[in-house]
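Replying to the earlier thread about multi-chain prediction with a worked example.

Input:
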Amino acid sequence: MTGEDVIILLPLVIVAAAAVAAMLAIAVRRSHAATAGIALTGLAAALAEVLVNLWLKKGYVGHLAVMDNQALFVIGLVLAANLVVGILSYGYLSRRRERAEEYYVLLLLAALGGMVLAISIHFATFFLGLEVLSVSLYGLVAYERGRLGVEASLKYLVLGGTASAFVFFGMGLVYFDRGSMIFFWVDWLYGQYGPGPLGLVAMVGCVMMFVGIGFKLAVVPFHLWTADVYQGAPAPVTALVATVSKGAVLALVLRMARGSPWAGYYFGDRAVYYSGGVCPSAPVFWILAAIAVASMFTGNLLALRQRNVKRLLAYSSISHLGYLLVAVLVSGAAGATAAGFYLVTYFAATLAAFGVVTALSGANGEAESLEDYRGLAWRRPALAALMTVAMLSLAGIPLTAGFVGKFYLLTAGAGAGLWALVIILVANSGIGLFYYLRVVWAMFERRATEEKELPRIGVATGVVLAGLGAAVVLIGVWPGPLAELVRAWMGGGW
Amino acid sequence: MLELLWLVPLAPLGGFLILAVARARLGRRAVATVGVGSAGVALAAAGAVAAGFFALPAAGRVYEQNLGTWISAGDLAARFVLHLDALALVMMAVVTLVGFLILLYSAESMAGDEGYARFFCYMNLFVASMLVLVLAGDLLLLYLGWEGVGLCSYLLIGFWYREPANARAAKKAFIVTRVGDAALLVGLLVLFTQMGTSDIGGLLARAAERWPTGSSVATLAALLLLAGAVGKSAQLPLQVWLPDAMAGPTPVSALIHAATMVTAGVYLLSRMHGLFALAPAAATVTAVIGAATLLLAGTSALVQRDLKRVLAYSTMSQVGYMFVALGVGAWGAAIFHFVTHAVFKSLLFLAAGAVIAALGEEHDLFKMGGLRQRLPLVFWTFLAGAASLAALPLVTAGFYSKEEILAAAWAGPAGGRWLWAAGAVGAAVTALYTGRMVFLVFFGTAKREPSQQPGWAMATVLVILAALSVSGWWLDPRWLLGGTEIAATLPVRLAGTAAALAGIVLAWYFYLRRPALAARVAQSRAGAALGRWWIGGWGFDWLYNFIFVRPYVWLTQLGRDELLDGPFRTLGRTLDLAHAGMSWTVTGRVRWYAAALAAGAIAAIAVAVWR
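Result:
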């Protein structure tokens, strides 16, 4: 590893160093504020470094990783989300009895795992990132050590371990067939044989890898853990699971599918796209399409009458990942751009929603029942407004970010001729509206009796929440700049 | 000075924004300052603009100010363009002057109302919309103003919204005018698609080039515009909303439902008079509608008991005169009458408002009387307005404008004897109900003591408007507008004057000299039947209720329970069932989750292996 590599990997180095520093600081003296300060400073510094890196240094790091525009974009997204979660966590943990310091070490490691996934072009880095992310999440989910939290963490651990085994086995099979673990070499070797069907071993390997990936994305039928884990984990950790974990894995899928012929294989003369993709084959396309459709319907239907807001958001995220898979199935830059844009809108709205949940969760439990939100608009109008904006955005109502995101997804899907998927997506948006609006409805209902005291909101949390709300609305009203940005960064290249 | 044109509509808009945002935080004095002041700024700006306008060479007195592009789609580019010509100047002057005076009056008369800030907020929005309407150089912008005044009319009729009847009146006004608005929109779309532009000047020029006189498209477009104008100006057959609109505060009735908004239709037809020149049939329809309305409304005004409803029917009838003038091609005379009517009718409303307030919200004519000595200022100003409405010869402004319309109906390019006869009969009826009003309110025995006198603001406004009402021919804007002179013979003019005088004499005889006789006529069998028929505005409410409202309500009831809900309910139930069926999969057991994961993996691998 040369000095140049270190410069290229500087964001990761900074976060890793911050994790070490936090650990050492805890050993010297326990202080919630100091540890949180180290972690947040590390994340912010790394985020700033990403911006510098944009112009300074890009390139390959051996055969293992690449720092290109897409990687920088996803890293920026991961870091920003982690920063938001970190700030939300500070207020949240201050209200709890538990010692809070180690939490930030795990938070930094989760960020590191996500970043490794973002730069990965090799099975080794892929697995490394996946495990670093997952293991830190196991710890975070159980951090409160309540009955539900431990149960959720154990479920996540057992099932996540199984999924990792699937990924590992799949990698082995692909390597056995292709003799390479680098994404685009696998691809290149494939190109030599011409566009024929994949060998049986490689095919099974591919599918097994996608089982593991599907588990991390929580898509049907690997989704069952989602609601339990969302409910059991502390609210800010749930936000992390919902955004960073899924977003980073999806970015990896996008890289593997870069220029994927999954769509082209079946839809017309798309031979130009045969330059990329780990698993270019028709069955994979159909499997993913089926998973997308099943996820959309299952997620929305399960959420329909859900009265626990955290579980509701869990089911909603299943359907959102189903929507995102449509973009994955669209080959080339169009799909990557649509997915990138949608990820941003999904991140913003999800973080805003969990931000409200976090801000309302006091020392005596999480604000997760729909009852906790009844009449919120009359007691905390600002929080209720933010939650409303988040819900409308997740539902895809115009003038919010979610609408524009969905619009790009639909455009990409229609452009690739995936009409059935597009129609199913639209129908599911209609179903989803029901339960998103139910939350809004509950907040605007008047309640007769005055309820328990609501926790106070710190300045930092307030600023972050206001920023999220503003972002959701701003992207919805004026999406042009972000669309240009995503097109430039997710469209591939340096 | 012309560059200040943008300030004319934007000043009241600014006032509206300030009041809308900060009305809870402003004191009453600040609210009045903003509310009246913004109209004052508009008036001052209008004065400056007028000065600049007259400085232009007389040949090409047109000024356009483009404030940016609104919509640009294909060939159609709608601009925020203000167009100032003589017609717009006259309209702007009237709207800003009368608007300012009425707002000044309201600052005092509305002082006790809890919705003080809300009132000025809406009124400022109205003035802004009205100015956009009259200054728009683009039909789409005109339509924006058109809808804006409609909205404000709705909001202000229902101003005291806690009374269900007021809310109903507001809804009625909005829905009935909406019928006309929809027709207007279709008309505008016809013009856009045919001419490819929404610029009014360009559009009229192209229409004159492309459409021969009497062409069916021109007639269609003109009739659709007419339908819009009929709705807004409360003419047959869309006149039913205006009497109920009196539910709003009196200054609202004065500004919106007498001086400005109800004459928006007159303005629209004047602005598009080039189009009506191409469609003689539509022009004839306009004149006939005007004549029928002026008779219907005049006779209805004769029997009303509510002072404000008399004035409402009177407004309808006077706007009917303007339509007659428009129909016979004398749009200059229509605008003249619009100007005088704006002055004397707003005066009558404001004076009536002072009477009603002094008597403790009493609207009934027959419970008033003898107020001549007790409210002297109100009496003399009301008398000036009434004289102008009744067209008392030589001194009053209303005499000159009505005279011009009657002369045009007789001798104008498209005039006719029947139109003139209707107008002359209408003039007599007008004088009769005006006299009835004056004699019942101010003469005879006092039935109630007035509790308050108007303060300085109200008094000033009344005096200014009264002075304008009896200023003779001085208000005639036709020297500015241009157009043909109408030379009616002296006997015709004298006959029209005689009709008005006869009405006044008749009123004096019936309501002052022999009140018992009037009562006997009213109580006779025929008189009572006629009275019942006329007091409801010739039974149109009953008719529309029967033809439109009830079948529509019936249809919606039908649709609510049977037709549309079925599929949606089924869909909802299906999704509910699907939710229930899906929910059992989430058991909370890890072994079950792992089994699902394994099953999914097996299924996926099976698909991959078997292709």
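Chain B has a mean pLDDT of 87.

Feel free to reuse this layout for your own posts.
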